[in-house]
Design goal:
Blueprint lengths: L11 E4 L17 E5 L5 H10 L7 H7 L3 E11 L4 E10 L8 E9 L8 H15 L4 E6 L4 H10 L2 E2 L6 H12 L10
Parallel strand pairs: 5-6
Antiparallel strand pairs: 1-6, 1-7, 2-3, 3-4, 4-5
Amino acid sequence: MTWEGAGRQKQLQMIWPERLLDRPPRPELPEGYELRCYEDTDESQYLQLMARAGFDNWDHDRLERERPSILSDGFFLVVHRATGKAVATAMAQHSPSELHPCGGVLGWVAGDPEHKGKRLGLAVCAAVVSRLVQAGYRRIYLQTDDGRLPAIKSYLKLGFEPFLFCEGMAERWQKVCETLGWPRSPDAGQ
């Protein structure tokens, strides 16, 4: 897959290490928030959340195109109890590819900037990884962009590792990790 930004370079990828499959992460939320699965009545506020998170191209049709790949009970929302507003989301998706023939993907992670710093992204990501592990996936991955540093830091904290699948990836990951102040061994994810 290629991304339309930064000279059409391939997106970064990360994998969930097989050594952690028997220890999936547990979602943890601060007071005042709840984690639940998406319901059809959530569509309007979900699309608003995606827009607030910077995904301007999300609409009903885009959501419908994603639905067939989403695992049952694998589309998560964090809701702010005081307002009833969806403030974070992620999807557990069946997404085999050439690099990941039996892959499950942590997809479309988004958070409301007004609720930044509360580890809500970590919570929805943990829920997705746990759901994918529960569904029997042994290859769990995600795709991201070099500039999505807060998201990448969350993925690293959760346990994901860089996947070095093509030329130039080691250098890109080195730069990302240096920018984040994150220690990384040169052979991670090979």
